[in-house]
Amino acid sequence: MNGVVAWAVTNARLIFAAILATLLIGWIAYTSISREAQPAIDFPFVNITLIHPGISPEDGERLLVRPMETQLRTIEGLKKITSTTTLGVANIGLEFDANFDSEKAIRQVNEKVDMAKADLPSDTEEPIVQEASTSLEPSITVVLSGEVPDRVLFKIADQLEERLETIPTVLSADISGTRKDQLDIIIDPAKLQSYGVSLTEFFQAVTRNNTLIPAGSLDTGKGRFAVKIPGLIETREDVLNLPIKQDAGTVVTLGDVADIRRAFVDPSVYSRFNGAPAVSLDVVKRTGTNIMETITATKAVVEEMKKDWPPGLEVSFTQDQSNVIERTLHSL
Hints:
Number of strands: 15
Mean pLDDT: 81
Helix content: 25-40%
Distance between the termini: 33 Å
């Protein structure tokens, strides 16, 4: 022991340099290491959600689950497939081997889902593919609430979503509590009768429109190009100008017998915060990025944008993981 002490005294400069190097490396590690409330763990599970409003569980199994399972069975490393169907919704769970490559697996699942979409009913919504991972948990949730018109609240939430997703460390900002736009057609029965239009004719005229019809291709001898019939509704005027009936050279349009107004789809879930209508945005950071920087940047964007928001609109933050991490780091 005396020899070690004597050597340390003799080489004091070397020992001092080693201590400084250790402190420097420790400080670099402390400032650069990722900060997480929970470690990022990828579980060998992927869930696929198929939504088809109004479809029965029996038809959902036959028309949604089976075409999808036919494609998914060919995925490499797939261990088990489980599925459940309820009214309007089908869920397919995929379990992979424990040593699976998450990036490769999710890429193969997306490819097979895209292939199976051609066999699904046309009214089925876009399939939702979700990977089970702790890193996909929200880092912070932004809640917008207040007694403001729904259209104003939803518009601000959409603008905030677009702005938050421009932050380099943010993977997504998922909105909850909004509703889709729709156009309500208000029929005037007296006008229908005066023009001799039945409800059946009116309904068929509306449902047969707003459809993109492929018309094949045209070969000019110098080249070939695709032809389509433009029939999609894009403006309010497009709806009012829909032809309902033609009689003796006169065309009866939708605007002659009805009016339209903008509205929202009827809510199936109500979202409120402190008793006021609310919309929330779950901010998910990218894997491997600094959660503290993500939360700080999110709050900075909100503070910048709230200057232009109308009076009565309040903003709150929930599930803020930075508070837990700061206390943990302080204890450490």
